[in-house]
Amino acid sequence: MGKTGGMPAFARDARTAAYYDQRAGEYDEWYLGQGRYAELNPPWWHEEVSRLVDLVRALPPARTLDVACGTGFLTQHLRGAIVGLDQSAAMLGVAGERVPTGSVVVGDALRLPVADGAFDRVLTGHFYGHLPADERAVFLAEVRRVAAGLIVIDTALRPGVEPAQWTDRVLNDGSRHRIYKRYLTSDQLAAEIGGQILLAGRSFVAAAVTWDHHRKDG
């Protein structure tokens, strides 16, 4: 597996990419609490998903790049000119159906294929928490290059859960995949991106930051 600063590379790792391609057809079972997740997800799960969807729906219309948009489960609730980007063509096949008035593109989240300042905001859900430190730094620099702001949504740290771990993911066909994952408090997420808390839930956290691109000190 590729390395980044002594940690496993996630964003460009071929085995991780293959896992998400393979998972595309069943990914939303996690959000919807279906299949194996009907028992694995906590009792408050559906309430938390509703809070998350409401947060995304309430965002003002803007030119938004949704990085690692996956199946477009959250992307479909954004308003404005929307572009969904993901490394998985299979995920984008689902997302494209959900966001018919937007567009989707296969791309590298660490080298975004868009011009400087092309978007008002970048949104990313359940991607940031998979990145080791070096990849987080590259990602944040890329986002700042292309957009005036960033919203990060990820998985909340719960009692008894290791904040950073290798976790085994099992797909419906029984195949097993090993994935690096961090779980974050809302305070930690806001501090890491230099922003403010948007959501401090039991299952999800979100934070936002806006940059002044006109400042000479960057």
From TrEMBL:
Superkingdom of the source species: Bacteria
CDD domains for this protein: AdoMet_MTases
GO BP term, example: methylation
Gene3D superfamilies (UniProt xref): Vaccinia Virus protein VP39
Protein name as catalogued: Class I SAM-dependent methyltransferase
Classification lineage: Bacteria, Bacillati, Actinomycetota, Actinomycetes, Propionibacteriales
Chain ranges of the Methyltransferase type domain: 65-147
Keyword entries, A-Z: Methyltransferase, Transferase
Species of the source: Kribbella turkmenica
A GO molecular function held by the record: S-adenosylmethionine-dependent methyltransferase activity
InterPro entries recorded: Methyltransf_11, SAM-dependent_MTases_sf
